[in-house]
Design goal:
- The chain has a single domain, classed as Protein Transport Mog1p, Chain A (3-Layer(aba) Sandwich).
- 20% of the residues lie in helices and 27% in strands.
- It starts with a helix and ends in a 7-residue tail after the last helix.
């Protein structure tokens, strides 16, 4: 019985080929066309593709560019970050791009203090990471097409009283980079 099971698919294939390959001259021969092309899943925009000139114009240090977190993308987000220019080096600015909707930041276990803001030409949502000190850190998010773009400022741990408001500084940076972000 086992031998018969092994041969059933082979016999079926021959019968199918024989039925489809024969034809009378002048008549169409039925064929089954197959395609091995598989559409690649979409990938998020990579913020590390922002030109160095634009990063420098925004006031960031191009030499401190870091792709990912410890060199790796996280949770489906492409990530790139830079420090502000020396001698300041008071904060780290990051951009995250992922295939998520704006409701991603509605998770109260991760994000809080959500409020609508206008950043450059975009309507966005300002947020804080749960447990983050609002006097040192800030985040902003908006969607562009199927992508969620998030930007954050994280103030260096050694800075106790930054000479800037993190959300004001963040929104200024995002507005300066607006033309380089997906639209």
């Amino acid at each position: 019985m086992r031998r018969a099971r092994r041969w059933i698919p082979v016999v079926s294939a021959f019968a199918l080929l024989a039925g489809c390959s024969s034809g009378t001259e002048g008549e169409a021969t039925p064929r089954v066309e197959t395609s091995t092309t598989v559409a690649a899943p979409p990938t998020p925009w990579d913020p590390c593709t922002i030109p160095d000139e634009a990063i420098a114009r925004a006031g960031l240090n191009v030499d401190t560019k870091e792709s990912g977190i410890f060199g790796r993308d996280q949770y489906g987000f492409k990530i790139c970050g830079w420090e502000d220019r020396p001698p300041n080096n008071k904060y780290f600015f990051s951009i995250f791009a992922g295939l998520e909707g704006i409701d991603y930041i509605d998770d109260p276990a991760t994000f809080d203090r959500l409020q609508p803001v206008r950043v450059g030409t975009r309507d966005a949502t300002q947020y804080q990471q749960v447990g983050a000190d609002a006097s040192l850190n800030c985040g902003v998010a908006f969607t562009e097409g199927i992508q969620l773009i998030r930007a954050t400022i994280i103030t260096d741990a050694t800075v106790r009283n930054p000479p800037y408001d993190p959300c004001t500084e963040l929104n200024s940076l995002v507005a300066k980079l607006d033309s380089e972000l997906p639209s």
